[in-house]
Amino acid sequence: MLGGHRGPAAQGEPTLYGDLLVVLSLCVALTWVLLSKKLMQSHSPVVVTAYTILTGTTMLALWILGPMILNPLRQTKVPPPPFTHVSTAAWIALAVSGLACTATTTFLWNWGIHHVPASRAGVFLNIEPALGSYLGVRLLGEHLGPYAWVGGALILTAAIILTTRGHDRPPDVILE
Questions:
Q1: 15 forms bridges with which residues in the sheet?
Q2: Structure confidence by residue, pLDDT tens digits, 49-95
Q3: Closest alpha carbon to 159 in 120, 131, 133, 115
Q4: What does the pLDDT read at residue 8?
Q5: Phi, psi of 15 (to 5 degrees)
Q6: Does residue 119 contact residue 174 with C-beta atoms inside 8 Å?
Q7: Which among 79, 55, 44, 47 is positioned nearest to 65, based on CA atoms?
């Protein structure tokens, strides 16, 4: 990470803009964890999951349908998405994916952060980009620089230390 260049990059090369987007996504994910943790003080993980998914769906709908709603005010018209050309099997696959992948994993994540401190859950947020980078190397033939490998090793080391060390007495003050 942060191996990008300031100037225009060749196709597939890392850029500073891309690196900053990854950092921004981690900040947004951390905000999500902290907000979810706070909400679960007064609501169950199921309720927080339902509102998270409804909020995400609303934002996605505005992102997709917003330009069409603003079409009368725009000089260049935006064509509607090709909803009518999508097969029934694709709609069913989308529904199953939404329920099996998104809803279930979001619920499991919320249930997990309901039972562990946010500081510990935050470390596991970093496993996602590390695993994505590793899969990019193994499945897509990508090449990572030495900083990426060191960063991945640090992420995995932190996760292993957090999960394998003895669970001593919890600290008197948890900074969350």
A1: 5
A2: 999 899 988 998 898 888 888 888 878 887 877 777 888 999 899 99
A3: 120
A4: 59
A5: -130, 160
A6: yes
A7: 79
Name the CA radius of gyration of the chain, rounded: 20
| Whole-angstrom distance, CA of residue 14 vs CA of residue 144 | 10
Is residue 143 a contact partner of residue 137, using CB atoms and an 8 Å limit? yes
Minimum mean pLDDT range among 2-6, 110-114, 165-169 = 2-6
pLDDT (0 to 100) of residue 174: 57
DSSP 99: I
Residues contacting residue 174 through CB under 8 Å, at least 6 positions apart: 117, 119
C-beta separation of 22 from 161 below 8 A:
no
Contacts of 68 (CB under 8 A, 6+ apart): 78, 80
